[in-house]
Amino acid sequence: MRFLEAVLRTVRHSRRLATGLVILGLMVLLALLSPLIVKAIGGSTDPLELAAYERWLVPGPGHLLGTDQFGRDVFAMVISALAVSLQIGAIAGLISTVVGVIVAFVAGYKGGWIDGLLSTFTGILLVIPTFPLLIALSAYAKNVSLFQVGVMISIFSWPFAAKTIRSQVLSLRSRPYVDLARVSKARDLEIIGTELLPNLLPFIGVGFASSALGAIFGLVGLEVIGLGPGGVIDLGQIIFNAINTGALTLGAWPMFVVPIALLTLLFAALNMINIGLEEVYNPRLRGVAGE
Amino acid sequence: MTDKVIELRGVQQRFHARGTPDGYLTAVQDASFTLAADPPQVVSLVGQSGSGKSTIARNVLGLQKPTAGTVTYGGKDIFNLSRAEYDEYRKNVQPVFQDPYSIFNPFYRVDRVLWKAVKKFSLASTREAGEALIEESLKAVSLDPGRVLGRYPHQLSGGQRQRIMLARIHMLRPAFVIADEPVSMLDAQIRKMFLDILLDFQREHRMTTLFITHDLSTVYYLGGQVMVITKGVIVERGPVSSVMHEPSHPYTRLLLDSIPQPDPANRWTTRIKVDESPDADTTAAEAPEPRPLL
């Protein structure tokens, strides 16, 4: 209850954060409703089936965004691809955040050689150029599931979260209230869970948002250059098809423009959430003084 | 159970530090003293910032393991206690920290600190008993339970927060209170109130206080025993009255000269030279043989 109140208060204090959350919320809603929307578009036929309709239909009342080279309804495709992209972001974001938080807490709280080892490893992963590695990895992953793609991408996106959260743990663990908890017989895990973690929620939120963003765009990047793992149709795949078939010259501009517009919107929303969270929790960035 | 005695023997604490000749900074050097719970007393540890006094507090509280020497409670090393001994030690050695702002986790209401003490140390068996205990302890430190309970730390003043810490001590009734500069961030009037509560605790609940401060005037007010520490070495010790009137170590004299007096006819006229350079350290050589308190 108190947590919800805190969240509401936070949102009220930052218009950026609120805007970002609303846009993201709408997109998630759209993604959640995608099976229903797809059904509504297709009626009795599946609009995502190959040769469901005629090929390269221009946008019109029957097909709001036209059809693609296989005669699939572009609107239905974009909506379900959005759901896929968001899922990838959620999976990769979740995995990176969980791994990052665990590594950060173990390293930051335990210190000593454990910290040295984990921080060096994190640092190495951070400076490795991840995109070429992703290209190499995707060469081995032709028919992979959505979850596997998420795992693959999160291998490279957790170090960022780990790094930022570790530095916060380092600063928080020497706070007097941690000492007080220790002399009150609290165990390490209890201190991490009840004293440190709640104060780190904004940083964890930022870590999640940026890993999710990184994952979605990492995959889009792979697919636009035609190296995406097969079996997953996300927004990047549609963009690739549009480029590959010369859809723009055929008048099927929505196939190219709509996925990009959606991605831009998503990028803007997640960034607004990031900046908004930082603004709320980092007083130095606050626009106006006072509560 | 064993005697309630805290004993430090040859405690040395070094930290890794860059820029020092040997890569270490020695915060505490060969500190030995004994704190006994019977009779209850106030022992003050006086020294300037960076003299190692807070490090000693952390050693005694078991928050920092000294690099050499031992800290014992009832004759047992506090970093090597059995479960029951550890519980006994924790119950009887409790802190009041310096900074009343960061002692509370900003995420929670202030009640939590008190409830945590109730639960972790099994002070009450029912919720009602716990509530009664908390109210009683808050009243013992002149706080109105209705005005502080259910509030967040930032809604209370520094004095109120520091007194909540005292209420926690009142609930736990430890044999030893390790007070690390508890009044340095309070204003003068609250400071006196705080010290009076500490003295009351000593009398009524038989608590021995290790009072750490940089301010000799509060030491004077509290009385009891005093130890003077500078650059990690305890250079002088004895009853407050004799140390105050016949300081044997030059650093103690310097400290005594630094007490401001609210007397316009007796203004500071001489400048005091504060020596910051580590090379000018003659204190260790001049330190008298450590003799046990009492």
Describe this structure in words.
The complex is a heterodimer of chains A (291) and B (294). With 291 residues, chain A is mostly helical. Chain A contains 11 helices and no strands. The radius of gyration of chain A is 22 Å and the shape is elongated. In chain A, 40% of the residues are buried. Residues 278-290 of chain B have low confidence and may be disordered. Chain B has a single domain (5-286), classed as P-loop containing nucleotide triphosphate hydrolases (Rossmann fold, 3-Layer(aba) Sandwich), CATH 3.40.50. By secondary structure, chain B is of the alpha/beta class. Helix content of chain B is 35%, strand content 22%. In chain B, the strands form 2 sheets. A 6-stranded mixed beta sheet of chain B has the order 6-7-8-3-9-10, with helices on both faces. In chain B, strand 4 and strand 5 form a beta hairpin. At the A-B interface, helix 8 and helix 9 of A face strand 6 and helix 3 of B.
Please give the structural blueprint.
The complex is a heterodimer of chains A (291) and B (294).
Chain A: H1 2-13, H2 15-32, H3 34-42, H4 74-110, H5 112-127, H6 130-140, H7 146-173, H8 176-183, H9 188-224, H10 235-245, H11 254-281
Helix pairs in contact in A: 2-4, 2-11, 3-4, 4-5, 4-7, 4-9, 4-10, 4-11, 5-7, 7-9, 8-9, 9-10, 9-11, 10-11
Chain B: E1 5-16, E2 24-36, E3 42-46, H1 53-60, E4 68-73, E5 76-77, H2 83-92, E6 93-96, H3 111-120, H4 127-140, H5 145-148, H6 158-172, E7 176-180, H7 188-205, E8 208-213, H8 216-222, E9 225-230, E10 233-239, H9 240-245, H10 250-257, H11 283-286
Parallel strand pairs in B: 3-8, 3-9, 6-7, 7-8
Antiparallel strand pairs in B: 1-2, 1-4, 4-5, 9-10
